[in-house]
Each structure stands twice: as structure tokens, then as C-alpha cells.
Amino acid sequence: MFEFTSLLAFVAFATSVSAHTIFQEVYVNGVDQGHINGIRVPDYDGPITDVTSNDVICNGGINPYHQPISNTIIPVAAGAQITAEWHHTLNGADPSDSADPIDASHKGPLTAYLAKIPNATQTDVTGLKWFKIWEDGLTPSDQSWGVDRLIANKGKVTFQIPPCIEEGQYLLRHEIIALHAASSYPGAQLYMECAQLQITGGGSTSPATVSFPGAYSGTDPGITINIYQTLSSYTIPGPRRLLM
Q1: Do the Cβ atoms of 12 and 181 come closer than 8 Å?
Q2: Which GO terms describe its biological process (predicted)?
């Protein structure tokens, strides 16, 4: 059984090695903020596999940022609904592309984090303190993943900006963790980009935070895992999400 599942993992990886994805559109309460506006998108759609790298913060690094980087800061009221849209390439939706928004083999969870920042357009993103606001992992009853639901919804997922957090400028870090080759480390493929937000209103909650890198370890059961079996549960990496 081990050899068979390892072979399945290899086949999935080999047949979809270039089936990557990019977070490239933000909607606020259903209103499109414009293609790649306010998002630090890379030119290349590849993953990060080293969870100890600074590249897990907002991508970049081995996937150079698209130039010029957007100087837009998206206004969002605390409590608003945010929709994040992903596609295989920066060209956006492509019905003829079987790997759009991401190849179906790339099963895994989705997460969203926020970090307060002095200036949402500043170049340096190291040292920020992040808190998780949303996640979508495994549904054991039918073995479906957050990625399956992303694909079914044509690359879009919707979640709420917490109404209780302080107003100010933030980065929204939206992430897909693809587990099709995660039986050993490094194998999990992390896709993430950061959107630049100005959050207004809100409250005074100061959530517990984590750092990137640091929030994930290569030994985490949500990072190194064989998904080619029936799973009774799955632990999404990182901290608990903020309860609203």
C-alpha cells in the first residue's frame, strides 16, 4: 500500500508540476477592486516549498514581483465580506485551461491572515505579526478539500474581515497549501500573495499573533502528510483562527 500511494503521489506531482496559481483579484462586498489592483502579485505562478524562507510571507523572492508593484490600498470596512479570486496565470480566467484556477490534483486547505503594517505599500514585510481570520480544510465525510471548493466556485472564496479588529493599514495574506506531493518534506506547495488594505471602523481587539516564517514547521502534520488515503481528520497548519 505504501508503494502504491507513493506512486500515486509521484504521478500527481509529475503530471501537474506546472499547474500553479496566483491570487489576483479582490472583491469588497461583491464589488471588484480591479485586476491585480492592490495585490503584490508575482510574474511567475510557482509555489514556495521552504516554510523557513521569507518567501512564505508574501511570495516574491524566487517568484519575482510583477512590475510595477501596485500602489493601491484597498479601502475595506471592518466586518465587510472579502472575495479572493485565484487563477492559473495572470491573464485571469481561462475556460479552455484545464488547470484554471488550479489543477484538481493540488488538494489541500486555504487560509487567510491579516497583519497590521505602518504603510501597506512599504517594501519590507519582514517582522510583521499575523493572525488567522479564516480557513477551509478537509471535510472528512466526503474527503473534499478547500481547493475542491475553490475550483467549484471558479477560483473565488469569500470570508469576513473581523468586525472587532482595530482600524488601520493591513496586509491580507491569502494562501493555498497544495498537498499532492507532501508525503515528505519539502513537498507541500504553498501559494500566497498579499493584498494591501485600509480597514476602517472596527473595534479594539488585539489578537494573538504569529510570525512568518515561523508559523509553520516542516514536521507539522498539516505540512507533511500522505493524502492518498482516507483521512478521518486534518490539522490545518498555523494558529487557531480569530473567533469573531
Answers
A1: yes
A2: cellulose catabolic process
- pLDDT tens sequence across 146-195: 999 999 999 999 999 999 999 999 999 999 999 999 999 999 999 999 99
Q: How confident is the model at residue 4 (pLDDT cuts 50, 70, 90)?
A: very low
Q: Which residue has the cell 471535510?
A: 139
- Cβ contact 133:241 at 8 Å: yes
Is the CA virtual torsion 79, 115, 72, 118 positive or negative?
positive
Listed in order, strand segments (DSSP E) in the chain are 22-28, 31-32, 74-77, 81-87, 110-116, 130-136, 138-139, 144-145, 156-160, 168-178, 189-200
Phi-psi category of residue 187: left, alpha or beta, with phi > 0 → left and psi -120 to 50 → alpha: alpha
pLDDT digits (tens, 9 = 90+) for 6-39: 444 444 444 345 669 999 999 999 999 999 999 9
Cell 499575523 belongs to 130
* Amino acid present at 240: R
Give domain limits for the chain: 22-212
The closest of 142, 139, 133 to 108, measured between CA atoms, is: 139
Q: Which residues pair with 136 in a beta bridge?
A: 110
**Cell numbers found for residue 222:** 498539516
- Interatomic CA distance for residues 105 and 9, integer angstroms: 10
- Separation CA 61–CA 56 (nearest Å): 9
Location of C-alpha cell 481547493? 147
Length of the chain counted residue by residue: 244
* CATH architecture for the domain at 22-212: Distorted Sandwich (2.70)
